[in-house]
């Protein structure tokens, strides 16, 4: 299917897939969704994600986020079709990362952030990975909202599954109480990807693409902090250079990286248990000067 001429027929995809009129090749499978490469008789391909659970808003949230981010930058992958069970995007052949594409990605992230948001959070229910993400308003500042919607909701699940013990939870709560003094000067809500670790940067032949967002109005330092998690994205220095060409960062941003990484690490303690405790509590120790 030539997407330039076949966009109007994309609503037929669920029927074509069901009746095996298009070749499907598995790409990856998660608890919440499975991904397939769809190949048509003319040799063209699309990328499709199928919901694998009873949360129909899961793919809707991703589609909403992609469209919202793409209003600000075409470095976010396009949504060709979306319904409660299916999300279709262009198929982008992977390529090796390079510094030029990284620098342009940094510029595009800055433009995306600069497009802003009406408030912290989003008007749709959020998901990240295999779990919930509360996008409702809370407080007057990013620090208040982050504490209420990105840290506190994941402490009890992490305690209940044994990832954190009572002392760990108390230490995180104590750090959270200091966020207003640690978070730097107030910033207006940025239009953030929300889950921008290196696995959600897809390197293509023409550019680097942002995929799989948990989009919301947030703090612009969060996306940059996430790019440094788990080994870090290739060519981070080039991304940062491109970003600061467009939008210089506030003084002290490097010292705040760990604060922004608390959320993704709490998602991992919630989903995967104690494996991620040491990394999480290492950040807490850095700010509290107490070993855990």
TrEMBL record:
Alphabetic keyword roster: Kinase, Transferase
UniProt entry tagged with the keyword ATP-binding: no
Pfam families referenced in this protein's UniProt entry, alphabetically: Fructosamin_kin (PF03881)
Listed InterPro entries: Fructo-/Ketosamine-3-kinase (IPR016477), Kinase-like_dom_sf (IPR011009)
Cited Gene3D superfamilies: 1.20.1270.240, Phosphorylase Kinase, domain 1, Transferase(Phosphotransferase) domain 1
GO molecular function list: kinase activity
Family: Belongs to the fructosamine kinase family.
PANTHER family hit by this protein: FRUCTOSAMINE 3 KINASE-RELATED PROTEIN, PROTEIN-RIBULOSAMINE 3-KINASE
Protein's UniProt name: Aminoglycoside phosphotransferase
């Amino acid at each position: 299917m030539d997407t330039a001429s076949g966009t109007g027929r994309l609503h037929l995809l669920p029927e074509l897939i069901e009746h095996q009129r298009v070749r499907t090749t598995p790409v990856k499978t998660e608890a919440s969704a499975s991904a397939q490469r769809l190949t048509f008789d003319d040799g063209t391909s699309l990328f499709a994600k199928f919901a694998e659970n009873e949360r129909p808003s899961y793919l809707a949230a991703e589609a909403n986020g992609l469209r919202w981010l793409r209003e600000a930058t075409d470095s976010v992958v396009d949504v060709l079709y979306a319904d409660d069970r299916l999300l279709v995007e262009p198929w982008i052949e992977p390529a090796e990362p390079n510094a030029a594409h990284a620098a342009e990605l940094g510029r595009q992230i800055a433009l995306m952030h600069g497009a802003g948001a009406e408030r912290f959070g989003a008007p749709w229910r959020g998901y990240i990975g295999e779990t919930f993400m509360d996008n409702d308003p809370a407080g007057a500042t990013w620090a208040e909202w982050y504490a209420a919607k990105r840290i506190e909701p994941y402490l009890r699940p992490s305690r209940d599954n044994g990832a954190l013990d009572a002392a760990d939870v108390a230490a995180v709560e104590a750090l959270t109480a200091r966020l207003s003094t640690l978070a730097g000067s107030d910033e207006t809500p940025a239009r953030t990807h929300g889950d921008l670790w290196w696995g959600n940067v897809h390197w293509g032949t023409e550019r680097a693409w942002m995929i799989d967002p948990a989009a919301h109005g947030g703090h612009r330092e969060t996306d940059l902090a996430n790019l440094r998690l788990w080994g870090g994205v290739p060519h981070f220095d080039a991304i940062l250079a491109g970003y600061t060409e467009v939008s210089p960062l506030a003084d002290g941003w490097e010292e705040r990286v760990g604060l922004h990484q608390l959320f993704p690490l709490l998602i991992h303690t919630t989903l995967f248990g104690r494996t991620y405790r040491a990394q999480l509590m290492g950040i807490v120790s850095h700010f509290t000067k107490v070993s855990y």
